[in-house]
Amino acid sequence: MANYCCAYRTNYFKVKDNEKFKEFMTHVYAEDLEVFHKKDENGNELYGFGGYGGISGYFNNENEYEDSDEAWDNAYDNLIDGLAKQVAENDAILLFEVGNEKLRYIVGSVAVITSKGYEYRDITNVGVEIAKQMLNNPN
After folding, report:
1. Do the strands 93-101 and 34-39 form a parallel or antiparallel pair, or are they unpaired?
2. What pLDDT shows up at residue 64?
3. Residue 5 CA from chain centroid, whole number
4. Is 21 exposed, middle or buried (0-12, 13-18, 19+ CB in 10 A)?
5. Residue 13 pLDDT
């Protein structure tokens, strides 16, 4: 039997308020979470984050995830909603995840988060759609 192993990472992105973003990230529950920052060519702060293992979501306080099934059910949606509120109007957060369970399966996905909305794509579905187009075969 094998364990699922994954890694997640974002691009660098601008936020509306540096201090609010830093505070927000202290409430993100994830394995091995690391927050990155650098400055762009104009001196603006850019942020990114990533880690090895899973990213569970956002919790309002550290005891919330211990006590409530409902909190766990909403945690990932709260993360996405919160990131959408944090990201600058003219930027996007690309949250990539890749994982495997030995060679039983390999997965990859991207969540694209802007202040206007959220889209999710799974690499398997993307591959199937490209094959359908290239082969001109909907099946």
Report:
1. unpaired
2. 54
3. 16
4. buried
5. 98
| Element containing residue 22 per DSSP (H, E) | helix 18-25
What average pLDDT does the segment 63-82 reach?
78
Map 80-139 to HEC letters: HHHHHHHECCCCCEEEEEEEEECCCEEEEEEEEEECCEEEEEEHHHHHHHHHHHHHCCCC
> Comparing C-alpha atoms, which of 128, 38, 16, 127 is closest to residue 82?
16
Tokens 């973003």 belong to residue: 21
For residue 112, give both structure tokens. Answer: 């694209």
Q: How is residue 1 written in tokens?
A: 């039997």
- Report the distance separating Cα 11 and Cα 136, nearest Å: 34
- Distance separating alpha carbons of residues 6 and 78, to the nearest angstrom: 21
Contact 50, 9 (CB under 8 A): yes
Give per-residue pLDDT as tens, 11-70: 999 999 999 999 999 999 998 999 999 999 999 999 999 999 988 899 886 655 556 677
Distance CA 122, CA 126 (A): 6
136 residue type, one letter: N
